[in-house]
Specification:
CATH superfamily of one domain: ANL, C-terminal domain
CATH architecture of one domain: 2-Layer Sandwich
Structural class: alpha/beta
CATH topology of one domain: GMP Synthetase, Chain A, domain 3
Number of helices: 11
Radius of gyration: 23 Å
CATH class of one domain: Alpha Beta
């Protein structure tokens, strides 16, 4: 389909496709991508042949369940065994425009000098011509700096090429150039603000920063509240993964989840089986780029755990939305068919002021999994029944699993260094 860019509030018309049009678009692009990768990327052909799969069998997103998930460790080992690209390059080497290097190392070839679709993440955040945006992501080896730089420019804004480090120089630059936008991580923005205040500045009065966009780490609600309410900075975040090509989901001004980019097929899957999960179910994010023919990554497992919703966003964008990154696949335990993630459990339980320490234990009685929450309290003189009811309700809302019991244990019963979730089940 023809894609019109920068149509008012939306960067392109892919963002407002009907659900039916999106399904058709993704299926067609996926089928084309798989056929090309099978013909031109040797490792893809080897993987499909070994699994007994024909490219003609991958006609829809659901068909991807047939394909094994590729992990970063696999990618590193394949590139070591068959340097430099591990058999994933699907174009002639002389057609590569640039090569990025990610930790591993992983060599990532890019064909097109400009990757415009990242711009929709900045466009949705409100970046426009007239903004002066400081980009604090590294320009060295990693793709983040230059790719985000080009995306900001596609929105018409001016980019200050800062890169990482040199905080005091960054502070001076932000003041001298009247920087209106910050691109980096929330942690670094807070570092900049606090250091500016230590140097005697009033950040809200002396600086012009009114927008912040970040990726690389998820912003906490408390940090977002400080930035938006105390410093009057509009904040937006995106979910990015280096190997598949960068930002793949992004927030709009509603901040009600991160919209999927239609240049990728995103799946939420059971990390143990690779089977796709439905809306609201927590699983691993698996990504297949369908935007170009360079890099034959089919079903790249990110290791990040999330869920998604399909309800149309009030902003008018129609893509499903990630609800946030709740942890890593290795920190998740399946209980009664649902994954409980350590970081997500911490967010719920430690959100109650009365709780000092906790630990979850998964056991099995007969054919049923049981989930027990052990709690240490800061103050023993509280209404335990009320706390139990409120905590269980909140836990079930966020983690989608009901606690079977809550046990209150004496102070210092739980070791300071402990697993958040202990799986005590014995499988015979």
């Amino acid at each position: 389909m023809a894609v019109k860019q920068k149509s008012g509030e939306y960067y392109d018309d892919l963002e407002i496709m009907s659900p039916e049009a999106r399904v058709k678009y993704l299926n067609e692009r996926l089928s084309r991508t798989v056929r090309h990768a099978y013909r031109h990327a040797p490792v893809v052909k080897l993987t499909f042949d070994k699994a007994g799969i024909s490219p003609s069998q991958i006609r829809t997103v659901k068909d991807l369940e047939r394909v094994p998930i590729l992990r970063k460790t696999d990618l590193i080992e394949l590139q070591r065994a068959s340097p430099p690209y591990g058999g994933f390059l699907a174009i002639p080497p002389e057609d590569i425009d640039r090569v990025f290097i990610s930790p591993g190392p992983v060599y990532e070839p890019i064909q097109h000098p400009r990757i415009h679709w990242f711009a929709k993440a900045f466009w949705a955040a409100g970046f426009r011509k007239g903004d002066v945006v400081i980009n604090t992501f590294t320009y060295h080896m990693s793709p983040a700096g230059i790719l985000f730089h080009e995306a900001i420019r596609d929105c018409g804004a001016t980019v200050v090429v800062a890169g990482t480090g040199n905080t005091e120089i960054q502070i001076q630059t932000m003041r001298d150039l009247k920087v209106t936008g910050f691109v980096g991580t929330p942690t670094y923005l807070m570092t900049v603000i606090k250091r500016a205040e230590e140097l005697g500045h009033n950040f809200q009065k002396d600086f012009s920063v009114r927008r912040a966009w970040w990726t690389g780490e998820m912003v906490t609600p408390s940090t977002r509240k400080i930035l938006e309410e105390e410093y009057r900075i509009h904040t937006s975040q995106a979910y990015a993964v280096t190997e598949p090509g960068g930002a793949i989901a992004y927030e709009c001004h509603r901040k009600s989840g991160m919209h999927f980019m239609d240049e990728y097929v995103l799946e939420i899957v059971d990390p143990e089986t690779g089977k796709q999960l439905g809306p609201g179910e927590t699983g691993e994010i698996v990504v297949t780029p369908i935007h170009n023919k360079v890099w034959g990554l089919i079903r790249f497992g990110t290791g990040d755990m999330s869920s998604y919703v399909t309800e149309r966003c009030p902003c008018g964008r129609t893509a499903p939305r990630l609800t946030g990154i709740v942890g890593r696949a290795g920190d998740a335990v399946k209980v009664r068919g649902m994954f409980v993630v350590a970081r997500q459990a911490q967010e719920v339980v430690l959100g109650f002021e009365a709780v000092s320490r906790f630990q979850l234990a998964v056991s099995r009685t007969g054919e049923r999994d049981e989930l027990t929450l052990k709690l240490e309290l800061k103050n023993e003189n509280i209404d335990r029944a009320k706390l139990s009811a409120e905590l269980n309700q909140k836990f079930q809302e966020l983690c989608r699993v009901k606690l079977d019991r809550i046990e209150f244990v004496s102070k210092d019963t739980l070791p300071e260094k402990r697993q958040v979730i202990v799986d005590q089940r014995m499988w015979k």
